[in-house]
Amino acid sequence: MNSQSSPDIARSPLTVEVTRGPIVESRHQVIAAIADADGRLLRAFGPVDTPVYLRSAIKPLQALPLIETGAADAFNVTEKELSLACASHTGEPIHVEAVTEWLNRLGLGIEALECGSHWPSYDVAARALAARGETPTAAHNNCSGKHTGFLCTARHMKEPLKGYIGLDHPVQQRIVRVLEDFTGLDLAKAPVGTDGCSIPTIAIPLDRAATAIARFADPSKLPTERAAACHRLQKAIAAYPEMIAGSERLCTALNRAAKGRVIAKVGAEAVYLAALPEAGIGIALKALDGTTRAAEVALGALLDEFGALDADMHNAIDRFVQPELRNRNNMRVGELHAVLPPRTES
Question: pLDDT band at residue 341, thresholds of 50, 70 and 90?
Answer without folding.
Answer: confident
